[in-house]
Design a protein that fits this description.
Elements lengths: L67 E3 L2 E20 L2 E10 L2 E6 L3 E12 L7 E14 L2 E16 L4 E17 L4 E14 L2 E18 L2 E14 L5 E15 L2 E14 L5 E17 L2 E13 L5 E16 L3 E16 L5 E19 L3 E14 L6 E13 L1
Antiparallel strand pairs: 1-2, 2-3, 2-4, 2-20, 3-5, 4-5, 5-6, 6-7, 7-8, 8-9, 9-10, 10-11, 11-12, 12-13, 13-14, 14-15, 15-16, 16-17, 17-18, 18-19, 19-20
Length: 415
């Protein structure tokens, strides 16, 4: 039976460890060379159906309840300091530099009763090398959820501004993103559920074309038994760019989520991305797309996660898209009860496509990256971590290849 959402539980900051999670963000080509800012404690709203099992045995215990409470409002401040030292960082294509970066990220999470939660985190990044400019990045997220008469409505509004060295642009790039999504689901029967997801993404980068992407995705779920959810869906979208060719796309998809045991879970989806580039004469690009997530917890202290996928996204460069193929393997291991080791390795291939001809734009990148993070809690509310990252990007275009090593540590504190 599909889980009927008769009530919405209170939003919790979940298992977020205050600190920058050192992982490979291989879902798109606009990857930070440095590890990204910490994710918002506001939980991402989950789509309907069977969900991947969590791994709470590997999460640090939640700190004591925040003392800042006013009725149903609970304020949970969080703080972070991170130091990183890295080489091979590109300030401009072909010019690799060494720099240290000191990051300060104070923020707050506000639980506004059982339906709404918000998080806001500014991050001050100070570079030791004057070839990079110091920045104040921002991340904000508002999430809400309601349930009534078999219907569930989930809302998410996100804002993110960053100015980080990016692999795609080969330089420090200021990017601003506004993302809005509404997920509306209806329990039609014990086994059938319909789900509609409406979203809007507004992106702008200094020196690059801005884009606006409204989209809609419709799923029809059928749950054969509690451990297996299947869905048939189709999505449509339109990408309007300030410079270059607009794009419309259609994505028919199939999805299955299977959790045969409490230790094993799979999520598979596949379909076709059919893009129409709105030039004269019109050109089309058909790309098989897929995603895979597999989790296995052989022991209480161990979790293995494998992810992979292929998708098409709009590039920063005018009249170009990227066909992104990636995989990532992550090990989470509890050590001596008080330490958590997170190690990952992954690969990301980005093939650039011309929006005019739907053929290759002449650039192909391959990134290999590995990360190691060892963390431990202290004083019930604090987290200390040491980290290492190795990153190498090869490209057939001069100036975009590099190899980087980064070492550092983090100190975080949260309520």
């Amino acid at each position: 039976m599909i889980h009927s959402k008769n009530h919405i539980r209170e939003f919790l900051p979940g298992s977020l460890l205050i600190g920058f999670l050192v992982s490979i963000a291989t879902a798109n080509a606009q990857q930070d060379v440095f590890a990204p800012p910490p994710p918002s404690p506001v939980p991402a709203l989950q789509p309907a159906g069977v969900h991947m099992f969590p791994d709470p045995s590997l999460d640090y215990p939640e700190p004591p309840e925040s003392p800042y409470q006013w009725g149903s409002f609970v304020l949970k401040p969080h703080y972070l300091y991170r130091f990183l030292y890295g080489d091979g960082i590109q300030a401009t294509p072909g010019h690799r530099s060494t720099t240290a970066i000191n990051s300060f990220a104070p923020g707050f999470y506000l639980n506004m009763g059982s339906h709404w939660a918000i998080d806001y985190t500014p991050t001050w990044d100070l570079y030791s090398n004057s070839i990079f400019h110091d920045t104040v990045d921002e991340a904000a997220n508002l999430a809400g959820a309601y349930s009534f008469n078999g219907w569930t409505v989930q809302f998410n509004q996100g804002y993110h501004y960053s100015s980080q060295p990016l692999i795609e642009t080969g330089r420090q790039t200021s990017v601003q993103d506004f993302t809005t999504s509404i997920d509306l689901s209806n329990q039609l029967s014990r086994q059938v559920l319909s789900e509609t997801i409406l979203s809007q993404d507004l992106r702008s980068g200094v020196g690059f074309p801005a884009s606006s992407e409204p989209s809609a995705l419709e799923w029809l779920h059928y749950q054969f038994f509690p451990q297996l959810d299947t869905a048939l869906g189709a999505g449509v979208g339109y990408i309007n760019v300030s410079e270059g060719t607009d794009i419309s796309y259609f994505r028919p998809q199939l999805q299955a989520t299977f959790s045969p045991t409490s230790k094993l879970s799979f999520n598979l989806s596949g379909g076709l991305d059919r893009r129409e580039f709105l030039v004269h004469p019109r050109s089309f690009l058909n790309t098989p797309i897929y995603s895979l997530t597999a989790q296995y917890a052989p022991f209480e202290t161990t979790t293995l996660t494998l992810t992979g996928g292929r998708e098409v996204s709009e590039s920063f460069f005018a009249n170009q898209s990227t066909k992104d193929t990636h995989w990532n393997a992550t090990l989470k291991q509890r050590l001596l009860k008080h330490y958590l080791l997170v190690a990952s390795i992954g690969q990301h291939d980005a093939d650039y496509i011309s929006n005019v001809s739907a053929n290759s734009a002449g650039r192909d990148d391959r990134e290999l990256a590995s990360n190691v993070r060892l963390s431990s809690p202290f004083f019930r509310r604090g987290t200390f971590a040491v980290l290492y990252r190795w990153d190498r990007n090869t490209s057939n275009i001069h100036g975009f290849g590099f190899s980087s090593h980064q070492v550092g540590f983090e100190i975080g504190y949260k309520y």
